[in-house]
Amino acid sequence: MTESDILTANVPSGDQVIKKTLYMRGIPKWEFDRYLRKKAETIGEDCYAGAGWQVTLSPERQESIGVCSLVAVDVTLVVEKDQFDDFLRSFRKNFLRGGG
Asked: Splitting the chain (100 residues) into consecutive groups of 10 residues, what average pLDDT does each group show?
């Protein structure tokens, strides 16, 4: 059994889940790691899982927008349909940024 198999053991597959990739900019990977480590029951390399959900982080990279350079991380969520909205709302709330 691979690490990926162990992490997905708690997450149903097929049409019972919603899979969504969020293209997050301006938030370093260590911040996602810190948040997910608190919530996860199982932790692998760049993969975190709990009851009915799994989150995978891409490698951190730099993206340029004009003269600005931002850190970018792709966050892939696989969550049971019945808890997807609450999970996504909580996840986004934890990474809100203000500015002006």
From this structure: 52 82 95 96 94 96 92 96 96 82
